[in-house]
């Protein structure tokens, strides 16, 4: 036999597509030709596969070998095709009867010595195989736990090429995925550790309940970072579909913890202010690495010391904030990854960053404005909740903490408020109040009575509030009324919402 075919999966963004790897061996000058839009890494596959076959004690056919990856139009990245190419080659040369690999998807990168190395993105690849009706996959042993997360697929693993050859030739056993370990519940940071800061606590509760982006301003040591890090602890768990989506992204990034569990908690990503644009939006050669904005998909993207970020990095967030997806442009074509995040910014209100309690800040109002203008425009514009925290007073810090509400207690209110909002907007396809466009809330069906918005309308007339600011305050008022169990906001809710926008942007 001089022709063989093996199944593999290629990723486009987070979506896997079945790929057929064909090998044809013809008489002629010994050579290996790879076709089907391979990128550089795939060309390198040729050399790795040859070394791995020879070093596994198999015969390397000295013939003209054509390896073709179908469909040709599908862009293919990365090294995950190695093992399938090796199997197709050995099948085509007649070394291996490939019947046992029929309808089996084979994934893995080969080392020169024949070792099968783990690859990124196994979870979405196996999920795609399952969707295509494939019920058996062979994956690198390092990815077996992750592959086993996908229901309805029998996962077997290999540590080297020899094991796959022995399985096909003699029916010897492949490796089983490790038994699923129930991950010990991680005790993350908890709100009970935050003393005082009533405004800050309320701000993150409202942000969590309404899905609002959040800006925390305040002097050093006020607890901005502390509060932001605790926002995930009051958010609901991810549902099945969302968990799969998030876990797929983390799989592509190669950051899944061992154990093979879906990511169930909303992720939290806090890139440093020196982070480059690719670190934030994604990039790199081969299979593009998701950036912080995709790793934070369905969770929190926290930019601490936001005003210190490169403006290019902040600008790069515009598109994902608007569309919930990020397009990574690269020389060999773009890749799109989901990137629906809740943004949290923290910053000192001025460049001098005097310690908490120091009243000697000499920054002029102009200097303060200029400092914050670095995050203004594209980002600040989308942030509903904007509060300035006061320095923590000694009495608050000395508080033993017993009186502080815990994350679990707050999470109950957040979940209830979210359920109400989701039900209210269900027909319109919005999930949280932050999804609702401002003008929509001014339509007759949802407009609040004149008495409720009296103060806001006066400020609008006086020119101290913009139309956009008005919409944002009303939107937050809906979240506050959801949290407090009213069916629509009253004047107090509007007042509190105004208070959660102490930094009034026009
Ligand atoms: N509200 C608080 N309750 C308890 N501890 C606090 C509080 N605020 C600050 N702290 C203590 O101060 C430390 C610094 O807080 P945090 O890093 O959150 O401040 P920050 O506002 O982010 O300051 P910076 O502007 O310097 O980043 C915390 O690790 C904690 O020990
Ligand atoms: Mg901080
Ligand atoms: Zn200052």
Outline:
The protein is α/β, with parallel strands linked by helices and 506 residues long. Helices cover 34% and strands 16% of the residues.
Helix content: 25-40%
Number of domains: 2
CATH class assignment of the largest domain: Alpha Beta
> Radius of gyration from the CA trace?
28 Å
Count of DSSP strands: 18
Count of helix runs: 18
Query: Regions with pLDDT < 50 over 5+ consecutive residues?
Result: none
CATH superfamily descriptor of the largest domain: P-loop containing nucleotide triphosphate hydrolases
Q: Describe the main β-sheet briefly.
A: 5 strands, parallel
**Relative strand content:** 15-25%
Hetero compounds: adenosine-5'-triphosphate, magnesium ion, zinc ion
CATH topology call of the largest domain: Rossmann fold
Report mean pLDDT, rounded to a whole number.
Answer: 89
Distance between the termini: 74 Å
- Estimated structural class: alpha/beta
- Main sheet: which strands, in order across? 11-14-17-10-18
Tell me what the CATH architecture of the largest domain is.
Answer: 3-Layer(aba) Sandwich
From the spread of the alpha carbons, the general shape counts as elongated
């Amino acid at each position: 036999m001089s022709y063989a075919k093996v199944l593999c999966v290629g990723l486009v963004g987070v979506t896997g597509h079945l790929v057929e790897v064909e090998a044809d061996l013809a008489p002629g000058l010994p050579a290996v030709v790879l076709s089907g839009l391979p990128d550089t890494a795939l060309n390198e596959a040729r050399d790795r596969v040859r070394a791995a076959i020879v070093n596994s004690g198999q015969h390397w056919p000295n013939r003209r070998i054509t390896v073709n990856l179908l469909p040709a139009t599908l862009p293919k990245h990365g090294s995950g095709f190695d093992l399938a190419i090796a199997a197709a080659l050995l099948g085509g040369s007649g070394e291996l009867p490939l019947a046992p690999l029929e309808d089996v998807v084979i994934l893995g990168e080969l080392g020169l010595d024949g070792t099968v190395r783990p690859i990124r993105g196994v979870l979405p690849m196996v999920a795609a195989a399952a969707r295509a009706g494939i019920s058996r996959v062979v994956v690198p042993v390092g990815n077996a736990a992750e592959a086993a997360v996908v229901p309805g697929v029998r996962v077997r693993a290999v540590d080297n090429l020899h094991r796959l050859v022995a399985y096909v030739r003699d029916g010897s056993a492949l490796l089983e995925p490790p038994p699923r370990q129930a991950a010990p519940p991680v005790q993350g940071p908890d709100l009970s550790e935050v003393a005082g800061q009533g405004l800050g606590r309320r701000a993150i509760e409202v942000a969590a309940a309404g899905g609002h982006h959040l800006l925390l301003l305040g002097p050093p040591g006020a607890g901005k970072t502390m509060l932001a890090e605790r926002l995930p602890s009051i958010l609901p768990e991810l549902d099945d579909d969302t968990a799969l989506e998030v876990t797929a992204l983390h799989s592509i990034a190669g950051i899944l913890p061992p154990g093979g569990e879906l990511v169930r908690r909303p992720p939290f990503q806090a890139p440093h202010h020196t982070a480059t644009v690719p670190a934030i939006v994604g990039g790199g050669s081969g299979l593009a690495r998701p950036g912080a904005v995709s790793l934070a998909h369905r969770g929190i993207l926290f930019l601490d010391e936001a005003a210190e970020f490169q403006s290019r990095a902040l600008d790069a967030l515009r598109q994902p904030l608007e569309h919930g997806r990020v397009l990574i442009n690269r020389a060999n074509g773009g890749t799109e990854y989901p990137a629906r995040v809740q943004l949290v910014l923290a910053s000192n209100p001025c460049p001098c960053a005097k310690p908490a309690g120091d009243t000697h800040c000499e920054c002029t109002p102009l200097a303060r404005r200029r400092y914050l203008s670095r995050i203004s425009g594209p980002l600040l514009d989308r942030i509903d909740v904007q509060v300035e925290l006061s320095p923590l007073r000694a009495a608050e810090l000395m508080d033993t903490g017993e009186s502080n509400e815990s994350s679990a207690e707050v999470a109950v209110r957040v979940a209830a408020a979210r359920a109400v909002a989701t039900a209210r907007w269900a027909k319109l396809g919005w999930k949280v109040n932050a999804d609702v466009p401002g003008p929509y809330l001014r339509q007759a069906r949802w407009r609040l009575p004149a008495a409720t918005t009296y103060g806001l309308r006066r400020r609008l007339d006086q020119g101290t509030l913009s139309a956009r600011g008005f919409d944002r305050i009303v939107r937050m008022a809906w979240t506050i009324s959801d949290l407090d169990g009213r069916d629509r906001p009253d004047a107090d809710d509007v007042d509190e919402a105004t208070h959660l926008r102490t930094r009034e942007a026009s």
